[in-house]
Write a structure and sequence with these properties.
heterodimer; A: mainly beta; three-stranded antiparallel beta sheet; 9 strands; 0% helix; B: mainly beta; seven-stranded mixed beta sheet; four-stranded antiparallel beta sheet; globular
Chain lengths: 111, 121
């Protein structure tokens, strides 16, 4: 059971928009700590997708966007493509752990 | 571009110690950054194990702290993980990573390819 809660799966047709939520608490996201997002393609290491709640590293398409409100954050993928099929993880800092914490992960399926 | 590569035994017996090394290229560990270990049990999510600063300061997941030791070898540009008294629950893909930013807002910027360590007799 992860400290940050994500839905196990979301799906959408090509071209559609999907969102992934990441719900925390007063010891992490709700305390104001930033949220980062990672994409993990099958059989590979995770890759940084969004940092500091809303920022994209160089090379990440603007189809990916992040937001944060209170104790929750969201990742949105617009114009869904087949190669977006992957697991997505949120990450933040938790004062109880005194360290980094990941969400449980969300599998995105393109129908 | 920072590159990382994990190495170590792929099979560890229960109650023994799991030891992994992460070799870093493209950047000198002595110059800075935080370095971390993350694991992923088969079919499950990511778990932060611990972080070590280039100075040697360490930050550990409380759930693993009593069994965990990390260290840096600047002469070899490597950092290492030792997890004692392992059980089947420690079976996972272990990743080493290079962190960006400053605590607590660090990001896991560069990752090794990961190595599957199985705990079994």
């Amino acid at each position: 059971q992860s400290v940050l809660t994500q839905p196990p799966s979301v799906s959408g047709a090509p071209g559609q928009r999907v969102t992934i939520s990441c719900t925390g608490s007063s010891s992490n996201i709700g305390a104001g700590f930033v949220v980062h997002w990672y994409q993990q393609l099958p059989g590979t290491a995770p890759k940084l997708l969004i940092y500091g709640n809303i920022n994209r590293p160089s090379g990440v398409p603007d189809r990916f966007s992040g937001s944060k409100s209170g104790p929750s954050a969201s990742l949105a993928i617009t114009g869904l493509q087949a190669d977006d099929e992957a697991d997505y993880y949120c990450q933040s800092y938790d004062t109880s752990l005194s360290g980094s914490v990941f969400g449980g992960g969300t599998k995105v399926t393109v129908l | 571009q920072v590159q990382l590569r994990e190495s170590g035994p792929r099979l560890v017996k229960p109650s023994e110690t799991l030891s992994l090394t992460c070799s870093v290229s493209g950047f000198s560990i002595s110059s800075g950054f935080y370095w971390a270990w993350v694991r992923q049990p088969p079919g499950k999510g990511l778990e932060w194990i611990g972080t070590i600063y280039h100075s040697g300061s360490t930050y550990y997941n409380p759930s693993l702290k009593s069994r965990l030791t990390t260290s840096i070898d600047k002469s070899k540009n490597q950092f290492s993980l030792r997890l004692s008294s392992v059980t089947a629950a420690d079976t996972a893909v272990y990743y080493c990573a290079c962190l960006g930013g400053e605590l607590p807002a660090v990001t896991f910027d560069y990752w090794g390819q990961g190595t599957l360590v199985t705990v079994s007799s």
